[in-house]
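I had to read the description of the data format several times before I understood it. The format is easy to grasp once an entry is in front of the reader. For illustration, here is how one protein appears when written out as sequence plus structure tokens:
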Amino acid sequence: MENIQDKKWYVNVLYILWICIISYAILFISEIIGGLFISRLVKGLFTSGLIRGDVYIYTFIMYILFIDIWIGVLFVLFIFKNNHYIIDKITTKTKGNNMANLFWGLFIGFVLNGLCALIAMINGDFTLRFSQFEIFRAFGLFFAVFVQSSAEELLCRGFMYQRLLKSTNSPAFAIIFNSLFFAALHLFNNGMSILPFYCILIFGVFASMLVYYFDSLWMVMGLHAMWNFTQSILLGLPNSGNNVPYSIFKIGSSVKGSFAYDPIFGLEGTILSCVLITICCVLLYLWKSKNKVEMV
């Protein structure tokens, strides 16, 4: 692929916009084609009565539908030769894609989201009550949430980030631009405002920095999946403004908004989560800079 650094600035801008258009087109077309097939499947399940009133299956389907993004991205990667190098970035051919980094991603996601929830509960923003726990259903939903979260990472930190990085040879630009794209995908979520937008943006920056420093898409897939699973399925809280009917814990009737919790957007649309993830970005940068790993 030709490096755009030697081209005129307006050519660079057009090329970057082209990558953005391709990325959105993958998302848009995947959802249209996937929706045509899956809507018939879901309609058939409702008609047969298999999922009518079953909140577990309904929740499972809400997440597993994101598999169409996986199919769309993989189709583009395998069909178009100029994208073949990205395939290595999502497989074990890339050294950072290993079980240890996947585990660390899961651990970081759980700790960060759990810490936000703990502080919000201590602050009296909400209470939790136990609803149900069935181990096989919990694993099933974790798989579905992983499909959803990893699909977003595959598109933004896999395809788009890698295309921008190879084209500009600037990790800092690739990190910021793909994070802006990631945040823009959430613009129409319930409760979106400046603070939630920044939180989604800085989460994308943190995830992109992890990809850059650890060369591991698996790590951020684990991070994103466990963040969403902890928030939605384990605790029953809104996830980026979206609620699901099935969760292990349920939120109590007394809820208030504060620096730690947004009743509509969830833990993400708060000063606490913004500051916490920003600190993670700064600490990660300082740690890796000390080890002489710099961004261009």
In short: The chain has a mean pLDDT of 90. The chain has ten helices and two strands.
